[in-house]
Amino acid sequence: MSVHATPRQRAYLVCAILMSTFMVAVESTIVATAMPSIVGRFGGFDHYSWVFSSFLLAQTSTTVIYGKLADIFGRKPVLIAGIALFLVGSLLCGLAWSMTALVAFRLLQGIGAGAIQPITITLVGDLYRLEERGKVQGLVATVWAASAVVGPLVGGVLVDYVSWVWVFWMNLPIGLFAMAGFWLFLREQVEPRQSPIDYLGAALLSVAIGALLILISETDGSAGQIGLAGAVFLLSSLAFVWQERRAREPIVSFALWRRKLLAACNLTALLAGVLLIGLTALLPLHVQGVLGRSPIVAGLALTMLTLGWPLAVALSPRLFRAFGVRNALRYVSLMLPIGAGLMLLLGPGASPVLAGFASFLVGIGMGIASFTCIVLIQESVEWSMRGSATASNIFARSLGCVLGATVAGAILNIGLARYAAPDVAERLHAVLNQPAGLAGLAADPAAVLVFDQALHLAFTGLFVVALITAAATWFIPADLSARGRPAEASPALGE
Fold first, then answer.
1. What is the pLDDT of residue 494?
2. Are residues 214 and 174 in the same domain?
3. Are 149 and 240 in a shared domain?
4. Vertex 196, ends 61 and 211: CA angle to 5°?
């Protein structure tokens, strides 16, 4: 099984990959800008968080499933089907008549989005040799970074001057062009495989992941709701393990996940996801609420992470050649705790430049860790397992992001409860709930001090996660043989 493409065809396919990546990456930030207008139109504020959660639930729970399907049927049909589902969901989101309908259509969007990221990254591994892959992965990372920056701006312009529906409908031409690119230029040679689809395993996995994400994200729910989600998660997980052990072609190969390389890389991805979303959530709060800077300055500080990430990815092949994969991964990953440690120096009188520099260093560490893990995983398995292996790493990072959002919020709330006297806590929550939000915090020095202490506690937690993430990279067998495969790889990898 293999993918064949001329240099010109590869150029067109990279364009299709970048368009697909942009379409999914921009979705979260652009929708966030439009949500106040949507809620004002439909009402139903109690469904607000589910507009985001439904997309995340579907995307995360289907990632591993699509990776397996891509290995069985080939990248092309599965990717095109995923994009088509995403576009149908986008079209219906613009036609939604209520918040309930919007949540349902966002779920459909997420089901399609689950195919796009893992399969496009797998395609990069199919199309390019190891020494060429850094440049393309750097382009993909740059698209993700640009999406985070331009998403809110584009969303604001569309809502103010056109209509909120175009927040979703702008995906339609982009997605259609991407589909055309894959349809016309992606040529696969797929050996026929009589592989039964593990539909029951896929369903149980989706239920288990959905219950887990509900359990960790709905911490303010009633005891009954939390207990029900926990019970569903436990029972569906046990049933999933039982099903996968007996299935002839399991949707998740436990033998694959037990390999030292994949286990170490996926653990690193999980921890990196926790760190990434924690930094994304907390750093803007500090820059605006404690340093008293504008949202633009906060955005620029966080944007430094999205500059460091693609820079590290683009430079990775050179670092591999100069220092070896093992040394490049281990020592550049130290930028994670160094950057997170600099955030502990932030205080009421600190400069936002320090916040930006710390963010940039974390981005460097994130870039080298994520790219190296993907490369090692893809080079350790044959074509017929590359989709599943790549999807497992993306799934681990996505799950880490969900866990990180919950953990960061929990630590911040613990800090507020610990450091704030009752009257200060009441004033702090009152200020944060006003339209001015963080901009009005500077008028209350006592509240600023408490907010700084609570954020400092959260940054300490992120520093610990960064240390563990950097340590996890030392357990990755990162030596590549002359043939470009990790040293632990063997001819019988599929067995």
1. 31
2. no
3. no
4. 20
Residue 422: is it exposed, middle or buried by C-beta count within 10 angstroms (0-12/13-18/19+)? exposed
Which structural domain, as residue segments, surrounds residue 203?
199-248
pLDDT per position as a tens digit, 217-270: 555 556 777 788 889 889 998 998 898 888 877 777 777 777 888 889 999 999
pLDDT digits (tens, 9 = 90+) for 296-323: 777 778 778 878 888 888 888 888 888 8
Domain boundary, last residue among 188, 222, 237? 188
Structure tokens at 312: 């590290």
Number of domains the chain is built from: 3
Report pLDDT for 430.
65
Residues 92 and 215 in one domain: no
Report the predicted TM-score, pTM, of the whole model to 2 decimal places.
0.76
The per-residue pLDDT for 489 is 38
Q: Within this chain, do residues 276 and 243 fall inside the same structural domain, yes or no?
A: no
| Residues of the chain with confidence (pLDDT) below 50 | 435, 481-495
- Does the residue 491 lie in any domain? no
Residue 433's pLDDT is: 53
Residue 22 shares a structural domain with residue 149? yes
- Judgement on whether residues 380 and 469 belong to the same structural domain of the protein: yes
The pLDDT, as a whole number, for residue 495 is 30
pLDDT at 438: 63
Tell me which of 169, 188, 207 is where a domain ends: 188
